[in-house]
Amino acid sequence: NFIIGKPILTEKNTACTETYIILGAYDKLAEAKNFLSYVKTKLFRLLLYLKKPTQDTTKDKFSFVPKLNVKETWSDKKIFDYFDLSKEEIEFINSHIKEMI
């Protein structure tokens, strides 16, 4: 299932149309990159998918997605460990959400 397009990192003072959703604004590039690593995780996209039955992606669709520390880089394994997910939960996520390249 298509959940969200590949996220992009933009420069300061960049404008966009409503074609794109701005998920965050950070003063430090490292924090923006860390947030981007979180957006690419399977858990982030699964939680978004649970609220997004159509292609319409609005701010309220992210209500299940917790805010995490952007001072850290995130990966699927790190997220799974952080939330202490069971083997069954991880298998469920992996079977429903594709890797984002």
Task: Please outline what is shown here.
The chain has 101 residues and is an all-alpha fold. Helix content is 36%, strand content 0%. It contains four helices and no strands.
Radius of gyration: 14 Å
User: In terms of quaternary structure, what is this?
Assistant: single chain
Distance between the termini: 15 Å
**Number of DSSP-assigned strands:** 0
Structural class: mainly alpha
Biggest β-sheet strands, sense, barrel: none
Share of helical residues: 25-40%
Extract low-pLDDT stretches.
none
Treating each run of at least 4 consecutive H or I residues as one helix, how many helices? 4
Order of helices and strands: HHHH
What characteristic shape results from the CA principal axes?
A: globular
Mean pLDDT over all positions: 91
Strand content: under 5%
